[in-house]
Each structure stands twice: as C-alpha cells, then as structure tokens.
Design brief:
Length: 346
C-alpha cells in the first residue's frame, strides 16, 4: 500500500511516496482505514534520523490519524466495523510496573506511532484496541487527526507535571505550532493567567482567541527573561512551558518564580542548555521533562475535547497527493496549528 515518508534519512529532499505491506490485524488489535493524518515536528526529527531510534525503511511518517474501523482482531468485541475513530499514538506494553500503576507514559517500552513504528500517512494502520477511541460527534476526520498528540502532551505537561492551579501565572514559549496552541487552551482551562511569548506577535489576536491573556513579543529588545519578569510583576512565573530548548531554558530559569516549574516538552532549537544552578536552588525551582500522556490522561483530555471546552487548531488541510507541501508548512512563518493531510475514501 502507498504511504508518505522516506527511503533514506536526510532533509526534505528525501521525502517520497513509499510502498509498504498492508498490516495484518492481530489478536487484540484494530485495523483502521485512515481518512486524515497529521504531521508534527517529531516527523522532521524522524526524517533526519534520531540517534538511537532505528526505523524500518521504507518508513511512513505521521503520528496522528483518524478514520474508520476496517477490521478487528480476535478478542475485540466492543468496537464495530465502520465506526469512526481517532488514534492515540502512544504505545506501551501494559505489563511493566509503570503501566500497572496507571502511568503508561513512563513505560520502559514506550513508543510512538510514526517514530518507532510505521506512521499514519498511509491507507491502513493497525494498533492495539486500547489506542482506538470513537471520534467525537463534533469532530471531522481532520479534527480527529489534529488533536491527539498535541493535546495529550499539553495536558500531562501542565496538569500533571507542571501542577497548574487556578490563579497560577503560566507562560507558553512559542505560539504558532500545534503543541503551543493546545497548551494555551489547557492552561486557561486549568484556571491560569496565560502569557504567550512569540517571535510572531502578528498571531496575537488568534492566540487571545484561544485564551491567552497576554502576548509578549520576543526579540533582541525584549528577551524572554526580561519580558516574563516584567509580565509577572517581578514575582516570577509559576509554570513555564518550553519546547524550544537550548536558547530559551537559561532565560526561562531566570524568569521562574520561587518554587516555580519549567516543563520541557521538546528541544526544537537545540538539545543542550547551560543553566545557572545557583538560580535553580535559590528559588527552589524545578526543571522537569514531560512527554505524551498516560491512558487516563488521554481519556481526560479527550473528554474535554468532546465537550468542546478544548478545540483542535488546524493550520491547513492538504490532499494526500500534496503531502510534501503539507510537510513544508512547518517552515512557514505564519504557521498556526496542525498540518493535516486528507486521504480519500476507498
């Protein structure tokens, strides 16, 4: 079957349509005919090659997907063929101590669809039954593909790891990608006062529409630490949600409040940062990593999406035969939300 991905690691010139075998449906599994798939920045890293993460090639990209159940394996009796569904892209073994404790995101065998396995930008995907959820009534297939990875990431990072409480000051570093647009909404839903720090303040009106109380311009005259310090009335920011990495973490630390939390969910601008440990211990602050979510957290945030208290933000929808154009949208300065590809019905 046809998929969009690569034969060899490298840059955008390596993107190609590839042929892979149609996956069989094993016991306890569900095969879904994909009707919409979404890309994340993770796909860029997978294309380039992530050290220590081997992939079977040719490789199909895409972690997020929504579609229609085509078949179910032995032992699956609670999901009918033809049901519209979306996929949780997090995979866990279900048997390790973390899984048995209900924190599947800490599973030693944790994997992500499209990174460690074949992705969703193809005709058919097979995943365990526990990864398949009914598509909310209010969702299109594109909505279903746009929501799972970014909202579970933001939910765990802010609610569980960051411990956001009503009245907290929360800063979102970066404002146009899928995860930041989800994080703004999650932080506001949790009762925080929310600032977004971005190099593209022209997106301010759209960010405010999602719930941001303030949008702060980030440039040479307004560095991150000084902007956040002033915004917090020189008390520091309770929770800083940072996906940028090397250039922002040291400045985030200088802007964090006493007992504040910096939650790192990515490193799009570099993985190695140098910090001043004196600031860290004197403020009794913490820097914590977060990725994906547990099964329970995914169910929680999906319920909020289903009720309309959170909503997917879609930058653009592209036909499958223009998937390369969709992938290149990540480089557009006006990117806002998720990039989705539409796959035709059979």
């Amino acid at each position: 079957m046809r998929g969009f991905g690569f034969e060899e690691h490298g840059g955008l010139d390596r993107l190609a349509y590839v042929d892979i075998p149609a996956p069989p449906t094993g016991a306890g599994e569900v095969r879904v005919r994909v009707r919409a798939a979404a890309f994340n920045r993770l796909d860029r890293f997978t294309l380039a090659g992530i050290p220590g993460v081997p992939v079977v090639r040719p490789h199909v990209l895409g972690s997020d997907g929504a579609g229609v159940v085509e078949s179910v394996g032995d032992g699956v009796s609670d999901l009918a063929v033809g049901t519209k569904v979306l996929l949780n892209p997090g995979l866990w073994d279900g048997t390790c101590p973390a899984c048995r404790a209900g924190d599947e995101a800490l599973c030693r065998e944790y994997r992500i669809v499209g990174e460690h396995t074949q992705g969703t930008a193809t005709e058919l995907v097979v995943v365990p039954r526990r990864n398949v959820h009914p598509l909310p009534d209010r969702f299109s297939f594109a909505d279903g593909a746009a929501a799972p990875l970014v909202f579970q990431t933001a939910w765990r990072a802010l609610r569980t790891i960051g411990g956001v409480s009503p009245g907290d000051r929360v800063a979102i570093v970066g404002g146009g990608g899928g995860v930041p647009t989800a994080a703004v909404q999650v932080a506001k839903l949790l009762g925080a006062r929310v600032a977004v720090v971005t190099r593209t303040p022209a997106k301010g009106d759209r960010l405010r529409a999602l719930g941001a109380d303030d949008v702060l311009a980030l440039d040479d005259e307004h560095p991150l630490d000084k902007s956040l310090w002033q915004w917090s009335e020189k008390r520091g920011v309770d929770v800083i949600f940072d996906s940028v990495g090397a250039p922002t973490i040291p400045r985030s630390l200088r802007a964090v409040a006493r007992a504040g939390r910096i939650v790192v969910i990515g490193a799009t601008a570099g993985p190695v940062a140098e910090i001043d440990l004196r600031t860290l211990f004197w403020r009794q602050a913490s820097i914590r990593g977060s990725t994906m979510a547990s099964a329970h957290e995914f169910a929680e945030v999906l319920a909020e999406l289903g009720e309309g208290r959170l909503r997917p933000v879609i930058d653009s929808v592209h036909p499958f035969d223009r998937a390369a154009d969709a992938f290149r949208r990540f480089d557009a300065p006006d990117l806002f939300g998720k990039v989705v590809v539409d796959l035709p019905a059979p």
